[in-house]
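hey so i finaly got around to running the thing on Precorrin-6A synthase [deacetylating] from Acetobacter peroxydans. pasting the sequence first so u can double check i didnt mess up the copy paste, my clipboard has been acting weird all day
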Amino acid sequence: MITLSLIGIGTGNPEHLTLAAIREINAADLILIPRKGNAKADLAALRETLCSDVLTNPATQIVSFDMPVRDATNPDYLRGVEDWHNAIATVWNRAITQHLPQGGQVALLVWGDPALYDSTLRIAARLLPPERIRSIPGIMSINALTAAHTIALNEIGAAFMVTTGRHLREKGWPEGVDTLVVLLDGDCSFTHIDPADVQIYWGAYVGMPEQILRAGALSDVADEIIRVRAEARRHHGWIMDIYLLRRVVTSQDSQVLP
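ok and heres what it spat out for the 3d tokens, dont ask me to read them lol
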């Protein structure tokens, strides 16, 4: 019988691994590592490095597979994503059948936490019933971003919203919230909103040695973020970034310690 563990690994920093994640890695008979082409070879290498740092079980197999590419030209976005997930599930099934024909425990290392803007749980559900899937929580990019900027995620007693770049571009700033966390934004969608009285806290490769941070009034730092982001993507061949937008409602008195 096959069981599947989806292990949150934070943002790629080995120090983000929880004891539960390390235990689950070592309990696996097979660890599947996706390859996403030469431009994103670093992502596979980071997963392999994490395994080499904490894996002590000599019986664990580590197997790489080529990740299917989503058809970005499909005008039906949701249908395109469904087709992509089906293709990924097929590849998983092929690799598992080949390398664990007698059954066993399979693990996948998931950036951040499997529950936040990641489809690994949905793909797993195509292959196995819920009772044979385990989700091991990891540090989310949201936690890593707010810690890097030493800010609170929410204002006192106030709500915040986690959304995507697509939603921000198409629907604008939602009513009733003053703090937005934006993920999955390849188009710098903060340029589509009125920057007046908005602070931005942006980070790329958060928690990794390559970490880049920028913060300030959106009107002042938007152009710099766009430039720095483009340079980093050209240099690394890929980028993972996230940002928090906050409307400045009132100023607060501060006391500075010596």
